[in-house]
Design goal:
There is one protein chain. The chain is an alpha/beta fold and 379 residues long. The protein has 2 domains: 3-196, Rossmann fold, CATH 3.40.50; 241-375, no CATH class. It contains 16 helices and 7 strands. It has helices at residues 3-9, 23-34, 52-63, 84-90, 122-133, 155-166, 186-189, 202-213, 217-226, 231-239, 242-258, 262-278, 280-301, 314-321, 326-344, 349-359, and strands spanning 14-15, 41-45, 78-79, 97-100, 143-148, 172-178, 193-196. Helix 9 (217-226) crosses helix 10.
């Protein structure tokens, strides 16, 4: 908590990161920490479940963990996997680290109206970040504020955050996470150091699942493939088998929509639009699943079986691929991308999804035996 402890950090290495598969950002952060050149604010971008929140927590652990001197008085490495401070931070009970997302509860106030659970409000910034920044750290060396899903800040919250980004005290570190930098205002982005996380190679995820989580090789191979570069998805799937079930249900759901009636498509649009108001991220994840689904159709169209993600459904994708042209596949992906951009720009959800449904091609269900349980040909 003193200047001397920070100077010791210059001569130590940081080990024990929970984040894996992102060697570039970890190397940069380690070097910056060792030379006492950390930025006052970071923006971590990347796909869903790629490790943004984990890296943000690792940063909070790093700046609040002191090296332990050995018997000769020399400082040892900072180990984020064994630090008591890190344990408290990851448990969410550290007094100097706040993780803020749309679901974060605010202190009760008779003047404040109920806030949306889908956005980060100006009260989140004022009552937690700005108010908390005014006091010194209590049990650590830095006060860290993590805005997980910063792209969901309302405009007034972004404006309020700018004040603290421009005048952050030395004892404060702010970390933002967002799918892309473009999802935030340029004024906010320009005041942060950008850390871009890219999809992790499936072999890296597979090895980690086996070594750290004790997953058997077959299951690790399956999960690492389905994770599409997002370690968090694979780890969640280990702990919750219903995630795989939901994934398989989505594959069948999309096939039934592509082979279904216009009424069934509009019903899907209406139900998904209703979900959008409750859980925006779930709908955006559904859209990502749609794009992956059409990718597998395209791979089967070109007989590239080794390149499809959902190999368990190769018969279904092969049958659909024979009924859909390359031009239709391309048009479908374009329609889905357009719907995603429209939803990000706050377009009317039901109308947007209805247009997407109308733009998707149709396949004859009679020619897709994998959808007929009585055919005995389903996956």
């Amino acid at each position: 908590m003193t200047d001397s402890s920070l100077s010791v950090a210059k001569h130590t290495s940081v080990i024990g990161w929970k984040t894996f598969g992102h060697t570039g950002p970890i190397r940069l952060l380690t070097k910056s920490f060792e030379t006492n050149r950390l930025a006052h604010a970071y923006l971590i971008t990347g796909p869903e479940k790629v490790g943004k929140r984990t890296l943000a927590l690792d940063i909070a652990c790093m700046v609040n963990t002191e090296p332990v001197a050995d018997m000769f008085g020399q400082s040892t490495d900072i180990d984020l996997s064994k630090s008591h401070q890190a344990e408290r931070i990851r448990a969410g009970i550290h007094s100097d680290v706040e993780v803020i997302d749309p679901a974060t509860e605010l202190p009760a106030s008779p003047e404040r109206k109920a806030v949306s659970k889908t956005t980060i409000s100006i009260d989140h910034i004022r009552q937690i970040v700005i108010s908390g920044s005014s006091t010194k750290p209590f049990e650590g060396m830095k006060k860290v504020f993590i805005l997980d899903g910063a792209h969901r800040m309302v405009r007034e919250a972004e404006t309020s955050l700018l004040k603290i980004l421009e005048e952050a005290p030395d004892h404060v570190l702010i970390v933002l996470t967002s799918p892309t930098a473009e999802a935030l205002s340029q004024t906010v982005v320009s005041r942060c150091q950008l850390l871009e996380l890219r999809p992790v190679e499936s072999q890296v995820i597979e090895s980690k699942l086996i070594e750290q989580f004790g997953t058997d090789e077959a299951q690790a191979r399956l999960l690492s493939r389905l994770a599409r570069g997002s370690p968090g998805w694979a780890i969640d799937a280990i702990n919750d088998p219903t995630i795989i079930d939901a994934h398989n249900q989505a594959i069948l759901r999309f096939a039934e929509i592509v082979t279904g009636s216009i009424e069934s498509r509009f019903r899907y649009a209406r139900q998904t639009a209703g979900q959008f108001w409750q859980d925006r991220m779930a709908v955006f994840y559904e859209i990502e699943r749609w794009i992956e689904w059409w990718r597998d159709v395209a791979m089967m169209r070109h007989k590239l079986i080794d390149n499809i993600i959902n190999v368990e459904w190769v018969d279904l994708f092969s049958q659909i691929a024979t009924e859909i042209t390359e031009e239709q596949i391309s048009a479908a992906v374009t329609a889905i991308e357009n719907a995603r951009h429209a939803l990000e720009a706050n377009a009317v959800p039901q109308l947007t999804l209805e247009v997407m449904m109308l733009d998707l091609p149709w396949a004859d269900p009679a020619k897709i035996p994998s959808l007929n349980p009585e055919s005995g040909d389903g996956s």
